[in-house]
Amino acid sequence: CGAGLGCLLGSPETLSCMEENLQPGPCETGGVSCGARGRCAAPGVCCDSESCVLDPDCSEDVGSHRSEDGGALKGVSGEMLLRLLSLATRKRT
C-alpha cells in the first residue's frame, strides 16, 4: 500500500505488503481525510472501509510518482483505478 497509488494487487510491489496481512487493522495509505470516514487512497479516489469513490478533494498533481525501485509511474486516473479495483474484487460465480 502506498500514498501514491493506494493498494496494488497481484504485482511484484505487493511482496513488501505481505506483512500487512498479519496486522489486525486494515491497510492505511496515509492519505488525507475525505468523505465521511474515508482517506484519499490515490489521486481522485477516496476509500473508506466499505468502498471507494471518485472525490475531487483527493486530486493532486500526479504527472508521475516514483516507485520503490526508482522508476517513474505514469499518472493513473482515479476512474481507471476504480475500474481496476472493481475487477479485482468482483465475486467469482
TrEMBL record:
Alphabetical list of Gene3D superfamilies matching this protein: Neurohypophysial hormone domain
An example Gene Ontology molecular-function term: neurohypophyseal hormone activity
GO cellular component, one term: extracellular space
Record InterPro entries: Neurhyp_horm (IPR000981), Neurhyp_horm_dom_sf (IPR036387)
Family from the record: Belongs to the vasopressin/oxytocin family.
SUPFAM superfamilies named among the record's database cross-references: Neurophysin II
Annotated source species: Sinocyclocheilus grahami (Dianchi golden-line fish)
Lineage start: Eukaryota, Metazoa, Chordata, Craniata, Vertebrata
Signal recorded as keyword: yes
Keyword annotations from UniProtKB, A to Z: Disulfide bond, Signal
Protein name: Arginine vasopressin
